[in-house]
Design brief:
Elements: E1 3-11, E2 16-18, H1 19-23, H2 30-37, E3 41-43, H3 50-65, E4 74-78, H4 89-97, E5 103-107, H5 113-127, E6 133-140, H6 150-153, E7 158-167, E8 174-182, E9 190-192, H7 203-207, E10 213-215, H8 217-238, E11 248-251, H9 256-265, H10 277-280, H11 287-297, E12 306-313, E13 317-324
Helix pairs in contact: 3-4, 8-9
Bound molecules: oxa(dethia)-CoA (UT7).
Oxa(dethia)-CoA binds next to helix 2, helix 6 and helix 8.
């Protein structure tokens, strides 16, 4: 028995911030940002938390599937920007949606959050522990970005993608395989210095700006290029897939150059790579489900398509998932 995506939707806050917005107060240019990252604009929510980004996408996802919300028996939220450390964002989503009789939890794997969470949802469904998992990948990165640091302010955005994971009606269609990795040695290059139990927030940590993202961009870049390309090639080999067999690569959208290096190593035609980084920047756990949702909504994914989801992020965490698409409109 395999598990599959049976519905998908996404939400982006309406407020658009172009590169020109940053040009006005930071020493940066549209040309630098485009050349180094591929990002032209991103969305920032003006209020609310990550759960508020999830709710509109979740409602649309449930409506598209045509089920009663109470049929959902588990909620997973992949995020590094939970509304609070506790309760979990999954609990807030359950409460805001008014779903009865379900359970759920958050998954913290940064940019690999969706890839880790879809693998978790698959195993819950395949083991019989859950029948209908509401799987959310969402981040309000504007809540932890230092807007006065040009090296990070321009990179991120806010957004959410939500899908339903259920038992597949055909064993060879759905979420078929995954390769997942974690290596805490990478933590030194990308982390949040304060606010956790090791260094609780205080007036001093806030004054030192330790509640924001810390990133050594070049070090992360180097590891990401190798990690994402390696794992994407590994999942192809493991499943005897050639580049011709693959319909779509859905890469985490952190940097166009990392995406291009991954596609290149997979010997993929660039037309088979989902890219929307120019519009939304890096929405962390949301990039992959937003891509999938947009492409499906635009009629560009068909039943039977071989799709590779691939990501790399803080931890380090990285992984790839092989999906054989199982939805028709
Ligand atoms: O999703 C989670 C995982 N994260 C990633 O995958 C991010 C990986 N890293 C990257 O994408 C890239 O390293 C960045 C986009 C963050 C930076 O690009 P880069 O080509 O690695 O630039 P750099 O950090 O080597 O900086 C080159 C120069 C520096 O100036 P100096 O020291 O050469 O004078 C930076 O200060 O560019 C400068 N710089 C900027 N200049 C204009 C950094 N940010 C900016 C900016 N505008 N926004």
């Amino acid at each position: 028995m395999s598990a599959t995506i049976t519905s998908i939707a996404h939400y982006l806050p309406p407020e658009i911030y172009t590169n020109e917005y940053f040009e006005k107060y930071l020493e940066t240019t549209h040309d630098w940002i485009m050349a180094r990252t591929g990002i032209a604009e991103r969305r920032f929510a003006q209020s609310g938390g990550t759960s508020d980004l999830i709710i509109p996408a979740a409602l649309e996802c449930i409506e598209k599937r045509g089920i009663d919300k109470d049929e959902i028996d588990c909620i997973l939220v992949a995020t590094v920007t939970p509304d609070h450390f506790f309760p979990s964002t999954a609990a807030l989503v359950q409460h805001k949606l008014g779903i009865k009789n379900c359970w759920g939890f958050d998954i913290s794997a940064a940019c690999s959050g969706f890839v880790f969470a879809i693998s978790t949802a698959k195993s819950l469904v395949e083991s019989g522990m859950a029948k209908k998992v509401l799987l959310c990948g969402a981040d309000k990165m504007s809540s932890i970005v230092n807007f006065n640091d040009r090296a990070q302010a321009v990179l991120f955005g806010d957004g959410a993608g939500v899908c339903l994971i259920e038992k597949s009606n055909e064993d060879n269609l759905g979420i078929l395989d995954q390769i997942l990795h974690i290596d805490g040695l990478g933590g030194q290059y990308l982390h949040q210095k304060a606010g956790g139990s090791a260094k609780p927030s205080s007036a001093e940590t806030v004054a030192a700006q330790e509640h924001y993202i810390y990133q050594d961009g070049q070090a992360v870049f180097k590891h990401a290029v190798k990690g994402m390309a390696d794992v994407s090639v590994d999942i192809m080999k493991k499943n005897n897939l050639t580049s011709d067999d693959i319909s779509w690569l859905v890469p985490h959208q952190a940097n166009l150059r990392i995406i291009a290096a991954t596609a290149n190593r997979m010997e993929l035609n660039p037309e088979k790579v989902m890219i929307n980084i120019e519009k939304y920047g890096n929405t962390t756990a949301a990039t992959i489900p937003i891509c999938l949702s947009e492409w499906y909504q635009n009629g560009r994914i068909n039943k039977g398509d071989n799709i590779i989801l691939s990501s790399f992020g803080a931890g380090f965490t990285w992984g790839a998932v092989y999906v054989k698409w199982n939805m028709n409109d």
